[in-house]
Amino acid sequence: MKEVRVRFAPSPTGALHIGGIRTALYNYLLARQQGGTMILRIEDTDQNRFVPGAEEYILESLQWAGIEIDEGVSKGGPHAPYRQSERKPLYQKYAQQLIAEGNAYYAFDTEAELEAMRERLKHQHSSDQQYGSGTRMQMKNSLTLSASEVSQKINAGEQYVIRLKVPANEEIKLNDLIRGEVQVNSSTIDDKVLMKSDGMPTYHLANVVDDYLMKISHVIRGEEWLPSAPLHVLLYRSFGWEKEMPRFAHLPLLLKADGNGKLSKRDADKAGFPIFPLNWTDPRTNEFSKGFRESGYLPEALLNFLAFLGWNPGTEQEIFSVKELIHSFSLERIARHGAKFDIQKAQWYNQQYLKSKTSEELTKYLLSSLAQENISCMPEKALKICDAMRERVSFPQDFWEHGKFFFIAPSVFDQSVTSKKWNSEVVKFLDQFISHLKTIETTAANEIKIALEKTSHTTSISSGKMMQPLRIALTGGASGPDLMAIIDILGKEETIQRIQYAITSIPVKTT
Ligand code: GLU
């Protein structure tokens, strides 16, 4: 079997969309599984769409995600350079080969002439309104001009493009590993520009030439490139490289969570979730977008989530480490239909991965948030807090965000609860509870329970009903980690102080 060589070939036209990370991931998984090579090629031939910083962004995103590149930009390798703008002479050479063999031609038509052609065809109600087999002989190109006219024009520095001479009425077939057989009649394809007047190749030429030269075995890319695939097949045919043609696998689209249409940045912005792996400020508009990394997603959780957007193992197992993904992944198990992008599921994965960490590891997250807030905390206390909260967090920053009350006594209390439940019974109970708390040695759960029982006994109020008011007094909110753990972490003095403060500041419900 052919050596597996796959490539991720993004264009540096802005931040990498999260779908790009999925494409890179699937390429990477196949490469690792098959002992193959993962290549990073930067497709930057479209100068108009070039965005400064985008290439660096792509590299940093891949690095953060843990998708390692074996060969390519930033790595080097036997087929360097891997940045297409640095490979211009190569594309020239191959375009010339196509011309010499009669598969491509120079075209000198100006924008106005092209427009005139389209107008004329429209008036004639021609079904074929493109520059192709039906129209090319009426245009200004090296098929209609004499050889001396052509060289005269070129020597005079007249602008030209090189177009592929697409044969009329030929069946082009390709067997996509995901989509199955795709068949197109060549007459539907226009004579695509291969070399632009600025001397740069178009995406199609550069992509095919490079895949060939870099000995790519599988082209795994987004479905938006499927319509280009027959043209690429035609290019392989025109070059006589059919035997070396890679296998194609076009990945399903990422859809909105409800399955209604393609997931766009606007949808993500509206729903308040990231669409880019890292923070990004668009240099053209200054628009800022928060990344998955900065939102607290763990790379391994994100990869697990992305792996399942289009692929599934055929079993119930959902948690897959990258190692397991490498083992289980297969192109055959990628679905054709679009994959619904459900951010809740991404959060669920993040939660699962956080949960699987040791409390010591989790403590680092809390301590780093605290350092930013200039709050000091003994490691043992941080450990206890993380232990108490580990089942309830989805993101590393949640330890601080949802656990602030461990460090800052509440000054406001959830009114939706206090307005209904904070009555004279509560005050009586908590008052007594303070007295009993004072008598216990430690704040271990069993001692607190004893204090609660005693309070219940002396006040004749069942402690069950008092748990929520107690929680409100200690944390300000109506939900959170285990109350016994909270009291233990706060300690006796702090607990008493907070209850006292709550008693004096929360208005008692009278009716
Ligand atoms: N440069 C293309 C992109 O930006 C690559 C498509 C392909 O993989 O062939 O997605």
Question: Which descriptors would you attach to this protein?
Answer:
Glutamyl-tRNA Synthetase, domain 2, 14 strands, three-stranded antiparallel β-sheet, Glutamyl-tRNA Synthetase, domain 3, three-stranded parallel β-sheet, 511 residues, 43% helix, 5 domains, binds glutamic acid, mainly alpha, Rossmann fold
Describe the secondary-structure layout.
Blueprint: E1 5-8, H1 18-33, E2 37-40, H2 54-65, E3 71-72, H3 88-100, E4 104-107, H4 111-123, H5 147-155, E5 161-164, E6 171-176, E7 180-185, E8 193-195, H6 203-213, E9 218-222, H7 229-239, E10 247-251, E11 254-255, H8 265-271, E12 280-281, E13 288-289, H9 299-307, H10 322-328, E14 339-340, H11 343-355, H12 359-372, H13 379-389, H14 398-401, H15 415-421, H16 424-439, H17 445-459, H18 467-475, H19 483-490, H20 492-505
Parallel strand pairs: 1-2, 2-3, 9-10, 11-14
Antiparallel strand pairs: 4-5, 5-8, 6-7, 12-13
